[in-house]
Amino acid sequence: MNIIFFMIGISLLLALGFFGAFLWAMRSGQQDDLYTPSMRILLEDKEPTTTDTPA
């Protein structure tokens, strides 16, 4: 019977930890831009410029 109370306490602490991490992520702005990351692969990178000067 004691193990049930122990497991309930551990699960509540774990749930509070996940909830705290969720609140931290929302307050720090990690969920602000949902469109750009999915389109970033489609955007072309600039071609690197090379100089032909001898060293």
Mean pLDDT, all residues: 84
- Overall structural domain count: 1
- The percent of residues in helical segments reads 40-55%
Question: Approximately how much beta-strand content do the residues carry?
Answer: under 5%
- The count of helical stretches stands at 2
Most strands sheet: none
- Given as residue ranges, the uncertain stretches (5+ residues, pLDDT < 50) are none
Counted beta strands: 0
Cα radius of gyration in angstroms: 24 Å
Strand/helix succession: HH
Shape descriptor reads elongated
Quaternary structure type: single chain
Helix-strand makeup class: mainly alpha
Terminal CA distance: 78 Å
Keywords: Membrane, Transmembrane, Transmembrane helix
Transmembrane segments: 6-25
Organism: Larkinella arboricola
Protein name: Cbb3-type cytochrome oxidase maturation protein
Task: Offer a concise description of the structure.
The chain is an all-alpha fold and 55 residues long. It has one domain (1-45).
Describe this structure in words.
The chain crosses the membrane at residues 6-25. Keywords: Membrane, Transmembrane, Transmembrane helix. This is Cbb3-type cytochrome oxidase maturation protein. Pfam families: FixS. By secondary structure, the protein is mainly α. It has one domain. Helix content is 55%, strand content 0%. The protein has helices at 2-27, 36-39. The longest helix is centred in the N-terminal third of the chain and has 26 residues, at 2-27. It is elongated and about 80 Å long. The relative contact order is 0.06. The model has no long low-confidence stretch (mean pLDDT 84).
